[in-house]
Amino acid sequence: MRPLEQLDRWMAAKVKSWTTKFSGQHAKELLEVRREILEEIRSGIQPLGGGKSVFPFNNVDIRIAAQDEREREVCRAAFAGEEGIAADIRELLAEAACALPRGFQATFEVVDDPALAWSGRPFQVKCSTRKGSVTPSPDPAVRPCAKLRVTVGDAAPGECEIAADRFYLGRLAEVVGKEGLRRRNDLAFAETETTVSREHAYIRYDSGAYRLYDTHSQRGTVIFRGGRRIDVPRGAAGGAQLSSGDEIHLGSARVVFEIKES
Asked: Which residues of 136-184 form beta strands (DSSP E)?
């Protein structure tokens, strides 16, 4: 599998090429949705060794919600056709040195779903395997060793390993409410770091990738990757996928995320 940094550069180039094709009021939102769909597909790619990888599904169903007929037309124009999202997924798998699964099919549909449209993440991606297909079986995913290193802000510890599938970041080691202990922060900033919320964010390892989630913080959570700013949606179910070397901003505090090379 290609290094994540190479895939990031490829995706950044794709986003840049899309900007010449997308226009109108919803252009920015459509670009972000298209990028997030590709990041979700990328999170499902699993290494096989020897520089090869596998996508253990041969069926991808994408649903995007629209609020009215005008939005539906805009979405169809942006995601369907020969240069649509299905073509991007095939290119991404090829870029990741991932053999296309036998009988691979990616379908796209615009749906009338107001709740999904207003959710902050107006799309769903469902990956599955149809009967009769043959896909290489990867080894069970093992969570790679990763760590956080504080570069700005007073926190304890200043450097720590992410030793669980869910890792909490915030102000104070223990967050206590009227009902008692609410949560324990694995990376705890000092009380004086007021731009960091007590329950600011958490990192979760799932489906072969680390993802960062903002738990409705006051000052927000941002990732900087190669000079590019990635805003982490507050409370959004999807979060944002992390890559080694990412600089995470929690309010004014800064933390570097690193994956240990095997």
From this structure: 146-152, 155-156, 159-161, 166-171, 174-177, 180-184
